[in-house]
Amino acid sequence: MNFAATAALSLAMSTDAFAAAVGKGAALHKPQWREALRTGLIFGVIEAITPIIGWALGSVAAPYVEAWDHWIAFGLLGIIGLLMIRNALSDADEEEAPAQSHSFWVLAVTGLATSIDAMVVGAGLALLGANIVVTAAAIGFSTFVMVTLGVMLGRVLGTIAGRRAELVGGLVLIVIGCVILYEHIGHPA
Fold first, then answer.
1. Which of 150, 137, 127 is nearest to 39 (CA)?
2. Per-domain boundaries in the chain
3. C-alpha 168: how far from its chain's center?
4. Which of 19-33, 56-70, 124-138, 148-162 tops mean pLDDT?
5. DSSP assignment letter at 15
6. E-strand spans in 12-90?
7. Comparing C-alpha atoms, which of 32, 3, 24 is closest to residue 103?
8. Strongest mean pLDDT among 16-25, 64-73, 89-98
9. Which one of 103, 124, 139, 152 is least enclosed by Cβ atoms within 10 Å?
10. Does the global pTM surpass 0.70?
11. Which residues contact residue 36 at a Cβ distance below 8 angstroms, ignoring those fewer than 6 apart?
């Protein structure tokens, strides 16, 4: 994967965490930078670890699916993208009631819940032979920044911006899947 694809993937993977952080920030009366940085760090570390786990699982299967890897990556990214778009467009508010405190465990569970898609993406990256260390670091850093900003902007942006961010993230994942497919099946000369 090139730099642009890695950056786009990192931003796409951090949008659901951003949406959650906006909700967490909205629950606070006056978010402090210390709380925002702490929340961003917890989410970022979790979001960086999950694609590595997925990559490790995907590496075991890579020799068996080499001929179909680009189709599998396309399908996985497309499905995740469509699910993110569906969640963004959903009329039902499925979010939990705002937490009264931001304990480590509440943030860790929330971070894990928003990073499951990164694990699936990691499995797809293993099939493509992507550099998982660089990609995971980029995803973790992007999530750290997005979550930190999301907490601080939570009161101002509310849930509308979080849903829009998830919509854009879903679209970006679909586009990345299409680019991967295009690059692997060839293009007209």
1. 150
2. 3-185
3. 12
4. 124-138
5. H
6. none
7. 24
8. 16-25
9. 103
10. no
11. 25, 147, 148, 149, 151, 152
